[in-house]
Amino acid sequence: MVLAKGTKLGAYELSGALGAGGMGEVYRARDPRLKREVAIKIVPAAFCSDPQRLRRFEQEAHAAAALNHPNILAVYDIGTENGTPYIVSELLQGETLRERLRSGPLPVRKVIDYALQLSRGLAAAHDKGIVHRDLKPENIFITDDGRLKILDFGLAKLTRPEATENDQTPTRTVGSEVGTVLGTVGYMSPEQVRGKPADARSDLFSLGAILYEMISAQRAFTGESTADTMAAIVKEEPPDLTETNRTVSPALERIVRHCLEKNPAERFQSARDIAFDLESVSTASATAKLQPVAARRRWGLIATASIAALLLLALGMIIPRTFWQHTTQPEFHRLTFRRGSVRMARFAPDGQTIVYGAAWDGNSVEPFTTGYDNSDSRPLGVPHAQVLSVSRTGEIALLLNVVNNSFLHVGTLARMPLNGGAPRELLDMVQFAEFSRDGASMAVVRLHAPVLANAVSTGTSSIEYPIGTTVYRGGASISSLRISPDNQRLAFAEHVPGGDDGRVIITDRGGNKKYESQMFNSLEGLAWRPDGKELWFTATSGGPRALYAVDLRGRQRLILRAPVSLTLQDIADNGRVLLTTENARQQMYALAAGAAKERDISWFDWSNVLAISPDGKTVLFNESGYAVSGYGIYVRGIDGSPAIRLCDGLSADLSGDGKWVIADSERAQLVLWPVGAGASRKITNDRFDHIFVRFLPSGKAVVFTGRAPGAQLRSYLQPLDGGAPIPITPDGIAASLAMPISPDGRYLVASTTSGSYAMYPVDGGPAKAINGLRTDDYVDKWSADGRYLIVHQRTAVPSNVSRVEIATGKRELLKQITPPDPAGVESVLQFYLANDGKSYVYVCRTVLSDLYVVDGLN
User: What is the mean pLDDT of residues 545-549?
Assistant: First the structure.
């Protein structure tokens, strides 16, 4: 029975039906608590009379909800209304892969893109021990912006629709016991057909069948009846893909064949292995398209090729379609050639001159100018300044005295003539600025709190347009503010505290939201198309940032994807695009006691130190880059011995005896993990977000920074024997990742509302002021005798490591950190000193980038 609009299921109000099928009816609904649209699936009535199936439904719903990955449908809630269970999930806009395949085979580049997303989603689920078992095009959704979502993860094995005698039967039976058939005919693995236990490798067989169908628009296994299809899966090989799609590469066909091996032991053994091979195929293809063009030298070759093509046509010869596709590929004209990072770049009014800010060869950021036909850049003579905007009247907006805290950049806004002159300071605490089209006014982003190196949340940002008139108040960081060509809209990226995760937002001139995108894992760089009909931006939900566009109706499209991250800088009136290609890394360097020089102990591409053992021999760190799915916690010897992955998680700490790790590893719950042999133990089971965590010296409790539902960040005490968390700091006050705790376990260092630092008693009570700390000090730890705080400068390279006497504020320089290769190093993020005072490890973020002008993007 279809439920009427306005019907309430728990806290949700239905607003219309979306569809129905063997797995139940799906409705669009409103969640009034979080003010968002959701999808609600009403489970079939057959479930209600079977207690075992109801129990399994709840178990599998919990399993699906535990999966947090951009390529898996997010499950928000489950409930029961009048005895009928329902599932609440994110609301998607787009179509299923089955619907997309009705129009024929997909382009090979799309096959690779979708296959990569699919394999990454599977890898995340398999890492948690969850197998889909009913993977098929109907259970794969493609959103309007090209993201792929796996549906019904962990729920498919609960269905038991009536059987029909054809190979389009949905899920045949329910169960995972030996001898029970589970899956969709045509996409089952041979072991499923035989009724044998199905593990993650069964999903990989189904993935191969889906890849085969995306490439050929034909099913890999089919027959006149269900029995014939099952027999084909067990005994036959599908036809060669080259028979139906001549553009498929041998490498891609080998991947499909390897997925479709009959024996599970001969298939890929993990989805991550498939993703690795697919990335190799993708990189080989994309690299060929991303070769920089030496413009002057190649015009003659291009012209000659075009004339030859016309002559061949005149002779009646057939020119392959791929030739014409090649000649219309975007052309990349490289502008910079030094080692370092380009921070911001803009076209000047003439469309030929480019103004950019860069930090070259380990030096601080400063502005330069160059031209489309030049290979040299001229410095403008303003050190420690970042370019923000260039007006049509020939003025540059600069950010002076820039302070960097993670992805947050703040400084003093100034204006300077492009043709020379000294900058004129206008406004403090500015993050971004943009000239209006006529150059008469500016829109600015201002930060309403001091920038502290140790701060987790640095207050709120607001947009003023013009300066002095607040039109929008947002979160901790707003970037890439751009004014539309007709001066009627503002576009910007709004980020989470301390990261570049964020959303694209478009407002009217008064700051009223007109569009808000989904959350991206990384979002940097926006620009309006000259006609104002689209906003272009660079973002990703996994992998390198790619170039996208969104129109004024909210429809997104992919413009350009490359093997490296792209950052959009600007678009000229003639359609030329200014962007940077980037290679960003977080690297760990360590010095062992008695060693003569530091060692690079980075593991993958985004290493982040969490702790160093008291004896200085072991490092605890996480990885969160392209090489891992989600976040992983690792331990590694400071001598460079191989790393060992302990668990999933973002934050963790090592116990004083080095035997245990506390990590936020199960849906952000705190779990104790043994470093050696032993079993894990879950400490919390609440609705808190547990972000940073640190053992107390006693080992009987931990301190964590987190957020209760609907509350602000703060720091808490959590006993390891259970019980509710006990607040340490006031609402909105929280300790940083280092979470410095005094040796006696009595005090925690955190920021204050006034922009200074204080010691908060762990057992409760008023905070105590700390003398001598500066806003650019990152507090790393207490000295062993409790008299000093060890600090380093997070926003400067080289970075001074000092100790500050708590009682007097007296400062003593201990060491100066300069990474072995300073080019592109933006900041020294963490510094951990062992108790012996000799061993240490630190992390620096490095961004190496090149600036390009690109022709031919549309």
Answer: 94
Q: How does DSSP assign 144-195, residue by residue?
A: TTS-EEE-STTTGGG--PPP-SSTT-SB-----STT---SBTTT--HHHHTT
467-497 burial, b at 16+ Cβ within 10 Å, e below that, comes to eeeebbebebbbbbbbbbeeeebbbbbbbeb
Range with lowest mean pLDDT among 4-18, 37-51, 692-706, 790-804: 37-51
Q: Residue 243's CB: how many other CB atoms inside 10 A?
A: 10
Active-site residue set: 134
Domains 334-575 and 587-773+835-848 agree in fold: yes
Query: For domain 1-91, which architecture applies?
Result: 2-Layer Sandwich (3.30)
List 399's β-bridge partners, or say none. 386, 413
CA distance 697 to 654: 11
46 — pLDDT class (breaks 50, 70, 90) = low
pLDDT on residue 245: 64
Q: What is the pLDDT of residues 658-667, one digit of tens each?
A: 999 999 987 7
Report H helices in 416-516: none
Note the pTM of the prediction, 2 decimals: 0.60
Domain 94-289: give its CATH code.
1.10.510.10
Cα within 13 Å of Cα(245), Cβ side: 21
Domain boundaries, the chain: 1-91, 94-289, 292-329, 334-575, 587-773+835-848
* 587-773+835-848 is classed CATH 2.120.10.30: yes
